[in-house]
Amino acid sequence: MRKMYLLLPYIVKMMKKNIALVAGGDSGEYEISIKSGIAVKKNINPDLYNVYPIVIKGDTWLYKGNENEISVVDKNDFSIKIADQKINFDCVFIAIHGSPGEDGKLPGYFDLLNIPYTSCDMFTSSAGFKKNFTNCIVSSFNIQTAKSLTVKDDSNITLEKIVSEIQMPCFVKPVRSGSSVGVSKVAKVEQLPAAMQKAFAEDNEILIEEAIIGREIACGVIKSLGKTYVLPLCEIVTHNEFFDYEAKYTEGKSVEIVPAPLSAKEETLCKVTSSFLYEQLNCKGVVRFDYILTGKGLFFLEMNTVPGFTEESIIPKMVREMGWNVSNLYSMLIEDALACKKA
User: Fold this and answer.
1) pTM over 0.70
2) 281: number of Cβ within 10 Å
3) DSSP 105-128
4) Class of 127-144+213-342 per CATH?
5) Strands (DSSP E) found in the chain
6) Closest CA to 118 of 98, 96, 139
7) Are 195 and 186 in contact (CB under 8 A)?
8) Which CATH architecture has domain 2-118?
9) What CATH architecture applies to the domain 147-210?
10) Is 224 helix (H, G, I), strand (E, B) or coil?
C-alpha cells in the first residue's frame, strides 16, 4: 500500500494528457505569438494537462522547458525526448499567429500525423488567412465587404489603374499577414507607392481596399462539444489613424470596450453573422471575426483563426466578460480537439 501511495503522483501525471503548446512562427507576429504562448502556459490547468512549450522558427523546432531544458522536436512524428524518455502528444495547442500556424501549414502537418489540434483545419485556415480569398467567400453569402483590388509583385499595374477602381482613402495590406503588419492607410495617390512597397515587404500579393468609415466591432465564436458560444462583442476605438500594430500592442493607443455599446439590433446582426460564418466556413476552436459597422450595415473585415491569447488580447477580455476564466476556455479548446479525433 505504501509503495502504491508513493507511485500515485507519477500515475496521476501519466493519466494527464500531454499537450504541445506551439508558439513563434515565421512572420512579423513572432513576438506576439511568444507572449500568447506564455499566457496560455500560465493558464492551462496543470491538474489536467502536462504542457510542453515548443518554439518554432523556420526549420528550428525546440521544446524549451524549465531550467534551460531543451529538446529538438523529431518532425517524423512530432515527438521530443526528455532525459531519454520519448514524449508523444495527445493534442497540440496552436498559438502561432501567421505562418505556419494560422495559414494551414501546421494543421495539414498534424492531420498527416493524426494529432488533434485546437484551431481550424488546413483548408479553413489557409482560406481565412488569405484576405482576398476570404472576401470572395464571404461576399458570396451576400455579406458586405469593401471594394478591393489584388496586386501581385510582378504585375505592371499603374497608379492610374488603381485609382480608377479604388477610391481614396484606402488601405494597402499584405494578402497574408496579421496584427496589421505591413498595413498602411492611404489618403492621397502619391502615398500609394510607399504603402505598396511596405506591404510587398511582407507578401508577394497585396490588397488595395477602399476604406469603410464606421465603428470597428469584433466578435468571438467558439464551438465546444457540439455547442456554439458567441462571446460578448468588443468595440475597438483607436487614437491612431487606424487599428495598426502600434495601436494593438501599445498601452494607451486604443480602447477595447467589452461589451460593445450597441443597440439590440446591431448586436444581433453581428452575432448572427459571425455564427453563420463560423458554420459555413467550417471553423473549429475559437475564431474572431472583425467588422466595420456603418449606417449602410455591417461590412466584413477579416477573420482570425488563431486570435491573440495574451492577457491584453480581445478574446480573453470577451471570455472574462462572459463570466468564464481563460483556463476554462483553453480546456474547452483542448477537450473539443480530443473529442473530434475520437469522433
Assistant:
1) yes
2) 21
3) HHHHHHHHHT--BSS--HHHHHHH
4) alpha beta
5) 17-24, 49-57, 60-64, 70-72, 80-82, 85-87, 91-94, 144-145, 148-152, 170-174, 184-186, 205-210, 215-224, 227-230, 234-238, 254-257, 286-294, 297-304
6) 96
7) yes
8) 3-Layer(aba) Sandwich (3.40)
9) 2-Layer Sandwich (3.30)
10) strand
Task: Name the residue type at position 89.
Answer: F
Q: Give the bridge partners for 21, in sequence order.
A: 53, 93
List the grid coordinates of 246. 502600434
- For the stretch 114-162, pLDDT in tens is 999 999 999 999 999 999 999 999 999 999 999 999 988 877 788 888 8
Q: What is the CA radius of gyration of the chain?
A: 21
Q: Residue ranges per domain, the chain?
A: 2-118, 127-144+213-342, 147-210
Largest Cα separation within the chain, whole Å, is: 84
For residues 102 and 113, the answer to whether their CB atoms sit within 8 Å is no
For residue 183, what are the contacts with CB-CB under 8 A and spacing of at least 6?
171, 172, 173, 174, 177, 199, 242, 244, 245
pLDDT of residue 252: 63
Exposed/middle/buried for residue 300 (C-beta within 10 Å: 0-12, 13-18, 19+): buried
d(CA 105, CA 58): 12
**DSSP letters for 262-312:** --HHHHHHHHHHHHHHHHHTT--SEEEEEEEEETTEEEEEEEESS---STT
